[in-house]
Amino acid sequence: MQMLTADEYAFLAKLATAYRNEHLPVIKQGKGWNPHLGVDALCFQHHADGGMVGALITPCELSLVKVPDQTCLTEPVADSLKLLLPSGIYWLSLDRLPEGHVFYKRVILSDVSDLESMQEAARLAQHMMSRLMQPTEEIST
């Protein structure tokens, strides 16, 4: 698997910051607000159909995210996206950020109030992504 470039990591950090700046007032009012957590894009990897797939952690939730290749976007952008991963098919919803950035997300865990640090959030994101990237028949419960 091809590693992300420094520019891609920088773009994901910029995307997480833009998401925080855009949504933080609403996030702070959300049920389950966790003051130990921030907003971060974690565990991203290239996806077979282009773009990147990973996790977005916020003080209220953990989401699966698909970031399309921003240089190949054409208008209009669909309001939803069917994402095929080894574990199955996931429907994601469009989120638009300032400066024209778009991505798709689906909340996987809507309560992260038990997490005590961003390190725990990162471990949870790693676990989520490893599970989603496994074929369904290999996932044991």
Architecture overview:
The chain has 141 residues and is an alpha+beta fold. The protein has a single domain, classed as Yope Regulator, Chain: A (2-Layer Sandwich). It contains two helices and six strands, in the order αββββββα. The chain has helices at 6-29, 118-132; strands at 40-46, 52-57, 62-67, 80-85, 88-96, 102-109. The protein has a six-stranded antiparallel beta sheet, with helices on both faces. The model has no long low-confidence stretch (mean pLDDT 90).
Give the SSE map:
Elements lengths: L5 H24 L10 E7 L5 E6 L4 E6 L12 E6 L2 E9 L5 E8 L8 H15 L9
Antiparallel strand pairs: 1-2, 2-3, 3-6, 4-5, 5-6
E-strand count: 6
CATH superfamily: [NiFe]-hydrogenase assembly chaperone, HybE
CATH structural architecture: 2-Layer Sandwich
Number of domains: 1
CATH class: Alpha Beta
Query: What is the H/E string?
Result: HEEEEEEH
Biggest sheet descriptor: 6 strands, antiparallel
Question: Strand percentage, roughly?
Answer: 25-35%
How large, in whole angstroms, is the Cα Rg? 15 Å
Oligomer: single chain
Low-confidence stretches: none
Secondary structural class:
alpha+beta
Helicity, as a percent range? 25-40%
Q: Return the CATH topology.
A: Yope Regulator, Chain: A
Distance separating the two termini: 26 Å
What is the count of DSSP helices, taking H or I runs of 4+ residues? 2
Shape: globular
Sequence of strands across the biggest β-sheet: 1-2-3-6-5-4
Average predicted confidence as pLDDT: 90
